[in-house]
Design brief:
By secondary structure, the protein is mainly beta. It is about 10% helix and about 40% strand. The relative contact order is 0.23.
Length: about 110
């Protein structure tokens, strides 16, 4: 809303943006932290209640956070709340994860 003025007469993508504004976004980007040692990677599936609900866009170890695995991925808006439990399909195995606040590292949070 603050970057694009829908009142402008014409521009490419105007109708798609109007539709999203009216109906809401189909997916949102969330940060998540993985439980255990398996690391999330781009293109892995995000699961909720055993069903695929999204994809990891990026992920890996976070050395500044005690070698925990973190990542970003798109999920339905209903799963965006901090603390929501999801899973990441890591090589055929569902690894538990939870949605966390971004940014992952805040100055002084570890060292």
């Amino acid at each position: 809303g603050w970057t694009v003025k829908l009142k402008k007469e014409r521009f490419i993508g105007k109708e798609a943006l109007r539709k999203q504004k009216k109906e809401g976004l189909p997916r949102v980007l969330v940060g998540f932290e993985v439980e255990g040692r398996r690391m999330p990677r781009a293109e892995m599936e995000i699961l909720h209640d055993g069903e695929t609900v999204g994809r990891v866009t990026s992920g890996g170890p976070a050395p500044s956070l005690e070698n925990r695995g973190v990542g970003l991925g798109f999920v339905p808006p209903a799963l965006k709340a901090v603390g929501t439990t999801i899973a990441i399909d890591v090589r055929g195995r569902a690894v538990e994860a939870r949605v966390v606040e971004r940014p992952f590292y805040k100055n002084g949070s570890h060292r």
